[in-house]
Amino acid sequence: RKSFVPTFFLVSSHCFISWGLFASSLCKHAYMRAGLLSLSLSVPGLLSSLGGVYTLSRLPSKSFLLHLPCSKPKRNLFSMSAAKKVKTSHAAANGGGVHANGGISGMGAVDADRYSYLASNDAVRKITTETRAQLLKMAEGKLSKENSAICLAGGKSGQWDFYDNDTTWTFFRQEPYFRYLFGVNEPDLFGFICLSSGLSVLFIPKIPEEVWRVTGVPPTLEEYRQTYGLGQVHYLEDMNKVLQDLGLKKLFVMKGTNTDSGIETVTRPEFEGISKFELDDSALFPVLSESRVFKTPEEISFMRTANEVSSAGHRFVMELCKGGMWERQLEASFKGYCGMHGGARHEAYDCICASGPNAAVLHYGHAGAPNDRRMQDGDMVLLDMGCEYNGYATDITHTFPVSGKFTENQKVIYEGVLSASTTVKSQLRPGIQWLDMHRAAEREILKALKKAGVLNETAEMEEMIEADLGAVFMPHGLGHFLGLNVHDVGGYNQGAKRNPRPGLKYCRTSRALQEGMVLTVEPGCYFVDFLLDKALKDPKHSKFLNPEGVQKFRGFGGVRIEDNVLITADGHDCFTDVPRTVEDIERAMAAH
User: Fold this and answer.
1) Are strands 200-204 and 232-235 parallel, antiparallel or unpaired?
2) DSSP one-letter string for 503-539
3) What is the DSSP string of 185-235?
4) What is the distance between the alpha carbons of residues 29 and 426, in angstroms, rounded to a whole number?
5) Measuring CA to CA, how many Å separate 451 from each of 66, 447, 564?
6) pLDDT digits (tens, 9 = 90+) for 163-209
7) Which DSSP symbol is given to 25?
8) For residue 548, how many other CB atoms are within 10 A of its CB?
9) I need a surface site. Which of 319, 327, 547, 582 has the fewest CB within 10 A?
10) Which of 199, 192, 190, 194 is nearest to 145 (CA)?
């Protein structure tokens, strides 16, 4: 950052960044610098070296050359605020090392412990044991027990094939309700929970031996049972006999609409012989979706640990960011970091890496806007990224200046959003109404806009709130439930109603907060041209606006700050750990 122009290239199993776009200008400069060390590395070795600043060139042999400044100290992979909380081995504290054959040395106990825990079947077994017990407790008096069982179908293999060939598949992700109770991330399964005894029964397809040469030898029934803590495991071909032996006559099956997405559930089972049972498709959905709202102790521990990795990934990306990089390089950096140091194979959603004016697009980064802008000093960059572990999502947004130094305009908007975040979090506790928190966030953002000259000095706060002016600058809800879905279920359970007013209608829940809920708190302020144009033409809003001030911020983009929080008995616990104040961000970026 101080004396040479480094460039960063990441190669992982699911992201390739072409070096050809940058090599001619950047690598040429780097090669001319004195004191460079070249090492031939495999891809795993490359990933292990992410703690350093380097250039990468590709050789005809398909290996890579990594050029490291010899005098550059290696960084702690879990750095900044996390370093205050954990102790690492000497190797981990110095970013690990690289063997001549490209292997990894010095991952450190912190990395290894997180990796092992998040990838372990033991964690899944503990989670599903708790979630099944919680569901049975909540079903008391709502689902009849005698000769009855809950019946769920998992995701189907045909739902993840693409087109007309056998190679362009997506990774299979289990249907969340099924995963919540049974934990198994494989297709074409059925699961039952006997309501009288609590017995859990899983049915799996028998894989023909001919297929083993492709898939490997599958686990035995007993291995499935022990791995996932289930009562019984059988093959699908034996389902009717097993159900008959269990004496089941009534099945509670899922039918309902996700109040967040408006999409029908897809867990309704279909199998030969189901017509022999009495089916109830109305009682289970409200009980099971409500159970998912309240996280069990093991779910909380798992989500907290997953957040540690995503937080560290965000901090790592912030340290790498500089003018001249492309947005998708930040995406690749985050994916590689979370995979390497936390075992994340997936992200919970498409990464949003929005710089400059792109940060005004709430869900930038999709196929039509694929994180393809080259960042410049003077831009703000908004990074909304979160990794996924065993189906559980993290969802963190971090906004900072590409240059590492806030301008006055950037600072006033950023601090307004930060004030909205801290104001809301200071009030979180059981009994607080979520829509009141949304309004509290709007007030802080409107204060900042007034300070920035976007709003008239004479504008009265309560008049602006009554006119729904906040929705012009924060056209989304304050946050959402988080769990096995990024936008998790249950936001409008228990008779909660959606408020139709601008701004409030975007809120993904209107419920009073309760202990055990996990939500995001994500206030934002954006300068969206078509919304600004409409507001300037609407007398309801234009009387509050200063046209010259509005013009000054066109093209600014936006700021969002998103944390993942647990509602506790007397307040909240924030899982997310990234620099938030202007001073902390500038200090962290100046150090790298």
Assistant:
1) parallel
2) TGGG-S--PBP-TTBEEEE--EEE--HHHHHHHHH-H
3) --SS-EEEEETTT--EEEEEPPPPHHHHHHH-PPPPHHHHHHHHT-SEEEE
4) 49
5) 48, 6, 29
6) 666 665 677 889 999 999 999 999 999 999 999 999 999 999 999 99
7) I
8) 9
9) 547
10) 194
Beta bridge partners of 250: 148, 278
Q: How far apart are the first and last CA of the chain?
A: 7
Closest CA to 362 of 556, 508, 526: 526
Q: In whole angstroms, give the CA distance from residue 288 to residue 181.
A: 10
The whole-number pLDDT of residue 25 equals 33
Q: Tens of pLDDT along 468-517?
A: 999 999 999 999 999 999 999 999 998 899 999 999 999 999 999 999 99
Collect all residues with Cβ–Cβ distance below 8 Å to 229 and sequence separation of at least 6. Answer: 125, 126, 128, 129, 183
User: Among candidates 124, 55, 91, which has minimal Cα distance to 302?
Assistant: 124
51: pLDDT strictly greater than 90: no
Neighbours of 232 (CB within 10 A): 16
> Position 343: which residue type?
G
| Residues 6+ away with beta carbon under 8 Å from 432 | 512, 513
Nearest-10 Cα torsion for 160, 166, 168, 172: 30
Q: Taking the model in full, what pTM does it have?
A: 0.82
- If DSSP codes are grouped into helix, strand and coil, which group holds residue 294? strand
The confidence score (pLDDT) of residue 226 equals 95
State how far the Cα of 392 lies from the Cα of 509, in Å rounded to an integer.
20
The backbone torsions φ and ψ at residue 154, rounded to the nearest 5 degrees and listed phi first, read: -80, 180
Q: Contact at 8 Å (CB) between 508 and 541?
A: no
Mean pLDDT, range 78-107, rounded to an integer: 32
Please determine, for residue 3, whether its predicted confidence score (pLDDT) is greater than 80.
no
DSSP 121-178: HHHHHHHHHHHHHHHHHHHTTTS--TTEEEEEE---GGGG--TTSSS-PPPP---HHH
Task: Give the range with max mean pLDDT: 2-6, 131-135, 158-162.
Answer: 131-135
Q: How far apart are CA 360 and CA 557, in angstroms?
A: 4
Q: Is residue 21 classed exposed, middle or buried when 0-12, 13-18 and 19+ CB atoms within 10 A define those classes?
A: middle
- Contacts of residue 52, Cβ cutoff 8 Å, sequence gap at least 6: 68, 69, 72, 74, 75, 95
Reading phi first (left if > 0) and then psi (alpha if -120 to 50, else beta), residue 350 is in: beta
Q: How confident is the model at residue 113 (pLDDT cuts 50, 70, 90)?
A: confident
Give the range among 46-60, 176-190, 217-231, 375-389 with minimum mean pLDDT.
46-60
Report CA-CA distances (Å) from 354 to 242, 367, 398.
53, 14, 11
- pLDDT tens, position by position, 264-279: 887 789 999 999 999 9
Cα angle 116-117-118, degrees, rounded to a multiple of 5: 95
